[in-house]
UniProtKB/TrEMBL annotation:
GO-annotated biological processes: autophagosome maturation
Family designation: Belongs to the LIX1 family.
A cellular component annotation (GO) from this entry: cytoplasm
Matches recorded under Pfam families: LIX1
InterPro entries referenced in this protein's UniProt entry, alphabetically: Autophagy-related_EPG5, LIX1
Name the UniProt record assigns to this protein: Limb and CNS expressed 1
Domain of life of the organism encoding this protein: Eukaryota
Length: 281
C-alpha cells in the first residue's frame, strides 16, 4: 500500500509539478486538481479516442444528503460515496474519488501487457470455472475476452473499460444474443463494435429495443429501471466506477420518456379528432 501511495504521489509530481503531492487529496480545490490533471494529459496527447472535458452532474434534491457524479474523458463515471451536506461538498468528494482512480490508472500495473493478459485470463477462468484452453477459441466467452485484451495491448484499463461497457450493455440489452442467432462470430461482433463509441445514437437504438420489450411485456422498463437505480446507488456508496449502471438508467429513462411522449401525442390527436367531430355535428 505504501509503495502504491508513493507511486500515485510520483504521478502527481510529474503531471502537476507545481502541486504538493502530499497535499493533493487534502486540498479543498481537488476539483481544480482533477481538471488540471486531464488538461495535462490532453496536452501530452495521451487522451481517450472520445476526447472530452471533465463533466459534473448533481442530482436534484431539496436537502441533504446530496449526490454528485463526475464523468471523465473516455466516459468513466464516479460519484461521492460519503454523505454530503452541500452540493459543493458532494462535488469535491466525487472529484476526489475520480482523481484517485485517474492516478491509479497511470500505474504500470493498469496497462494491458502480455503478462497482464495472462493473469487476467487466468482469473477469468477461475471465476467462471472455465477451461484455460478456451482462451484460444474466440467462440467462447473466455476466448472473446482474451481476443479483446489482445486487441487492446498498450491501453490502460480505463481505456479498455470504455469498450467493455459497450459489450456489457449489448449483453444486458439482449443484442449480443440476437447477433449470435444471426450466426455472427464473436470476433466479427467485437471488430464491428470496437469501431464505435457509446454516444446518443447508440443509446437511442438501445432505448428503441426496450420500447419493443415493453410492448411485449408491459412494465418491464419500470422494473429494470428500479434495478438500475438500486445498483447505481449501491455502487456509488461503495466508491465503484458507475458508468454501466448510469448508462442503463439513462437508456431506460429515454425509453420511458419516448413512450410517454408518444402517448401524450396520441391523446392530443384523439382530443383534436373529438373536437373536430363535435364541431362537424
Amino acid at each position: 500500500m505504501d509503495s502504491t501511495w508513493e507511486s500515485l504521489q510520483g504521478i502527481i509530481a510529474r503531471a502537476l509539478p507545481h502541486r504538493d503531492p502530499a497535499l493533493a487529496f487534502k486540498d479543498l480545490n481537488v476539483v481544480a486538481i482533477l481538471q488540471e490533471f486531464w488538461e495535462s494529459k490532453q496536452k501530452q496527447r495521451a487522451v481517450f479516442p472520445s476526447e472530452g472535458t471533465v463533466r459534473y452532474e448533481s442530482l436534484s434534491s431539496l436537502g441533504p444528503p446530496f449526490v454528485s457524479y463526475v464523468t471523465l474523458p473516455g466516459g468513466s463515471c464516479f460519484g461521492n460515496f460519503q454523505n454530503c451536506f452541500s452540493r459543493a461538498e458532494a462535488r469535491r468528494d466525487a472529484a476526489k474519488v475520480a482523481l484517485i482512480n485517474s492516478l491509479f490508472n497511470e500505474l504500470p500495473c493498469r496497462r494491458i501487457t502480455k503478462d497482464f493478459i495472462v493473469e487476467s485470463v487466468r482469473e477469468a477462468v477461475s471465476s467462471t470455472s472455465g477451461n484455460f484452453k478456451d482462451a484460444d477459441d474466440p467462440s467462447t466467452s473466455i476466448g472473446a475476452y482474451h481476443y479483446m485484451l489482445e486487441s487492446n495491448i498498450g491501453k490502460t484499463m480505463l481505456e479498455f473499460q470504455e469498450l467493455m461497457i459497450i459489450f456489457q450493455l449489448l449483453h444486458w440489452n439482449g443484442s449480443l444474443k440476437a447477433l449470435r442467432e444471426t450466426k455472427c462470430s464473436r470476433q466479427e461482433v467485437i471488430s464491428y463494435y470496437s469501431q464505435y463509441s457509446l454516444d446518443e445514437r447508440m443509446r437511442s437504438h438501445m432505448a428503441l429495443d426496450w420500447i419493443t420489450k415493453e410492448q411485449e411485456s408491459p412494465g418491464i422498463i419500470s422494473q429494470e429501471l428500479q434495478v438500475a437505480l438500486r445498483e447505481l446507488e449501491e455502487a456509488r456508496k461503495a466508491g465503484q466506477e458507475l458508468r454501466f449502471y448510469k448508462e442503463k438508467k439513462e437508456i431506460l429513462s429515454l425509453a420511458l420518456s419516448q413512450i410517454y411522449s408518444d402517448q401524450a401525442a396520441s391523446s392530443s390527436q384523439d382530443d383534436q379528432m373529438s373536437l373536430a367531430l363535435h364541431g362537424y355535428h
